[in-house]
Design brief:
342 residues, alpha/beta, Rossmann fold, 7-stranded parallel β-sheet, 3-stranded mixed β-sheet, 12 helices, 14 strands, 40% helix, NAD-dependent epimerase/dehydratase family protein, oxidoreductase, NAD(P)-bd_dom_sf, NAD(P)_dehydrat-like
């Protein structure tokens, strides 16, 4: 990428998208265009990043896309098509399929787009597996979106979307030979660049409820953004899927880090009521009658700390990841700071 190339970030007001825009700005790129859905968020972010051009554009709708993509060479896709009238997750998947196909077709028609880095998810790789003995996953694996009983049905639509993207890229419709690379973040944590984001720490730990302890893989949002940029620059990454995973931890370990550093009042200000974490082996015993279900086969190995994510492309990790302590503490500090401004 040259410093004056036109770069498009789809979903620039998002958690990772805003950090991509910030990092590209700091690196000296001068022709950054971001798309958004929410007008208020775009106006706030534009004040923080006045060098970025902003366009309102929704995947699945044609308005503004030709102008957004005109002359663009590099596209970071942080977005997905959305239809509030979808009734099932298969419906959502079909909406996302149409949205990503529309984007890729418009990119071809632009005549200028060379490469797209599409942010997919860990959930398109490592779930819905019917082989109970399989506990190691690489980028060669795919979630079975047709498996009954997936514990998080967002996996269905995200997997359908990514498969549609690869199908288009490898088809005769890709007449300009656009290159696709996908990035698959695990649990994304860390301080938000914009004030409206709550990271996975909030999603995982807030609420007056009981939850099973489990292993999880995580990545700092700033590292996820940096990896997006590294993958865009790397020709070795072309045509490949890439885990974005920095560390392996547990829910209880994250909560312990927080309780050691912050007061009860600070924790309540950010998380409200905090979930009660039950040891994983205790929950496994309770779930023993459910051994044939997808939930059991996906989650019990994680509760017992047996699942391994192994990247096929370690060379893609071109920088040093942050450790979980720094990620968790800086995320909490930022959420507290944003709370105090409300």
């Amino acid at each position: 990428m040259e410093r004056n190339d036109k770069i498009v970030i789809i979903g620039v007001t998002g958690y990772i998208g805003a950090w991509i825009a910030k990092q590209l700005t700091d690196m000296g790129y001068t022709q950054i265009t971001g798309t958004y859905r929410n007008e208020d968020k775009a106006q706030q972010l534009q004040k923080m990043l006045p060098n970025v051009g902003f366009y309102k554009a929704n995947l699945g709708e044609t308005e503004n896309w030709k102008e957004v993509l005109s002359g663009a060479k590099w596209v970071f896709n942080q977005g997905s098509a959305f239809n509030p009238h979808d009734k099932t997750f298969k419906d959502r998947g079909r909406t996302k399929e149409k949205g990503i196909r529309m984007l890729l077709q418009l990119a071809v028609e632009s005549g200028s787009v060379k490469k797209i880095v599409h942010t997919s998810a860990e959930s398109t790789i490592a779930y819905g597996n019917e082989d109970s003995s399989k506990t190691t996953f690489t980028e060669d694996d795919w979630t079975n979106e047709n498996r009954e009983g997936l514990f998080d049905l967002h996996m269905v639509s995200k997997t359908m979307e990514e498969k549609a993207a690869w199908s288009f890229i490898r088809s005769p419709e890709n007449t300009t030979n656009i290159t696709l690379t996908t990035i698959h973040p695990t649990h994304v944590m860390g301080p938000s660049f914009a004030p409206w984001h709550h990271d996975m720490i909030y999603a995982m730990l807030h609420g007056d409820r009981a939850m099973a302890d489990s292993q999880l893989y995580g990545v700092d949002v700033r590292d996820a953004a940096a990896m997006n940029i590294e993958l865009m620059k790397s020709t070795e990454a072309n045509g490949k899927r890439h885990f974005a995973s920095a560390f392996k931890t547990t829910y209880s370990a994250i909560l312990a880090i927080i309780k050691k550093q912050f007061t009860d009042e600070q924790i309540e200000a950010v998380l409200g009521d905090v979930a009660r974490i039950i040891p994983g082996d205790v929950v496994v015993d309770l779930l023993s009658p459910c051994q044939l279900t997808a939930y059991y086969q996906d989650m019990v190995p994680r509760m017992l700390n047996r699942v391994v994510y192994k990247t096929n492309y370690p060379e893609a990790y071109a920088y040093k990841y942050r450790e979980p302590n720094a990620t968790v503490l800086q995320a909490m500090e930022k959420m507290l700071k944003d709370k105090n401004k409300e």
